[in-house]
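tool=predict chain=A
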Amino acid sequence: MATAEVININNEKVSEIELNDFVFNGEVKKHLFYEIVKMQLANRRGGNASTKGRSLVRGGGAKPWRQKGTGRARAGTIRSPLWRGGGVVFGPKPRDYSYRLPKKMRKSALRSALSLKFKEGKLKILNSFELSEIKTKSFLKVMDNLNLKNVLIVTDNKNENLEKSARNVPHVRVLRQEGLNVYDILRFDNLLLLEKAIKPIEDRLIR
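tool=predict ok
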């Protein structure tokens, strides 16, 4: 079992904790990162692009000129795709870009991301992060004590004071443990885990 220091908000060591090697000190399979991040970003795509075909464009009910005798090409509507302001041929329509990769692959990638942070020394464990009020200044003071800037903070449960105090701070994100994902772990330089969040994470990734 790998061991890690548990610190408080003043950056003082208060205890040690054993981490499951399978989750936090395993093989780092970097080739999975591309696949999982690609899936996550695809799942976040809105897919809202939409164009109007000739039947949806307003106007164009009357025939612009008579069929024969004008010397011009025949035309049935001013909303033809050939005309300016006309419909779009084979344009994009709202679609779903999301897809799913196998559950074992997703879990393996998450374990690899956690192991990478641990081996790089960019994983810190905090005993608790309780703020008495919603105040960004108080949150920034703790970040200064911990000497952390670009950081992902993972909590065990809802922590409204922490979440709202950190939401306007650039390069900081607060996530609950059930929302932990590969993209956010890799996107931030540092990972700060609350001590109570470790057991649920290990239970989820061992099974």
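Residues 39 and 100 are 7 Å apart (CA to CA). The first strand starts at residue 2 and ends at 7.
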